[in-house]
């Protein structure tokens, strides 16, 4: 959908009385921003925005809009960012717009803004992509597998896992196969300097996080990462940066979209694969680690299956092309540092509340893996 599809009259037609009549709530501020950016003053809520998903750094709301005469608007969603990272929505909008222009299944952005302090968080409005999150299919796949085993149909049970294993690899290969020159031009056309997605910017963000959380004990690890950056051939691709089954949407015909581009980075393919390695069973915390004993049984059920799609992912990716083992180790260590910095940043922002990686056990596992790869003992965890 193009903003022009919603254009009916000039935004200046919004009356002062209408703007004063609508209280300055989050929903009111969001609607006012949409009216202005889409130049559609008769836009209104058909229904109040409702929560669709909640992540560690954002909330996604389903938007049901209408125009004068109750004419329905196309289905949209808005991603409200909780973290205060300047320019993040602008970068995400540029990345998603560039990908959509190149035919990659990323939600096309419609509007974005930095919001209003105390009222509306930074926001990104985009087309609603059909489909379900791939991760949500895991319980059904497990139950089907158990039932087929009970019926002594073990071979058939393996076939039901083919989409779980193969679809993420094919989608990631498609992403990494996009022509970088065309992608960089598409980013520049949307006002984004490709350097903002480079590894140098990732290092700068890590340094800001370590300074903000006063994590001086992690600086030797950051120094090692700077000193050992892989110097292989220039094989830069666009990496998603948070590639897992929770960000892949699927339908009956296959993959329908890849969402959450807040960590998009121009780097070697091993950057993305290193993130998958960090998430394998050995380093993934359980619900019990989050101080939620009532969910610990659910966590125990998840653990035996956590590796499914994680550990085999790199192996399957190699079947379609080579990977540099040293670079893969390096970026795995890089993501370990990302996790440690992020968990402390989130903990500080939430006044000490637990997050996915904040438990002593989870941090000890991550720092242990970092030490195995780098030989640097952070003395922390």
CATH homologous superfamily heading of the largest domain? Aminoglycoside phosphotransferase (APH), C-terminal lobe
CATH architecture of the largest domain: Alpha-Beta Complex
CATH topology of the largest domain: Aminoglycoside 3'-phosphotransferase, Chain: A, domain 2
Main sheet specs: 6 strands, antiparallel
CATH C-level class of the largest domain is Alpha Beta
Give the topology string: H per helix, E per strand: HHEEEEHEEEHHHHHHEEEEHHHHH
Compute the number of helices. 14
Structure write-up:
The protein is α+β, with helices and mostly antiparallel strands and about 375 residues long. It has two domains: about 5-125, Phosphorylase Kinase, domain 1 (2-Layer Sandwich), CATH 3.30.200; about 130-375, Aminoglycoside 3'-phosphotransferase, Chain: A, domain 2, CATH 3.90.1200. The protein has 14 helices and eleven strands. The strands form three sheets. Strands 1, 2, 3, 4, 5 and 6 form a six-stranded antiparallel β-sheet that branches. Strands 7-9-10 form a three-stranded antiparallel β-sheet, covered by helices on one side. The chain has a two-stranded antiparallel sheet with strand order 8-11. A hairpin with a 2-residue loop joins strand 9 and strand 10. The protein is globular, with a radius of gyration of 22 Å. The chain starts with 15 loop residues before the first helix and ends in a 7-residue tail after the last helix.
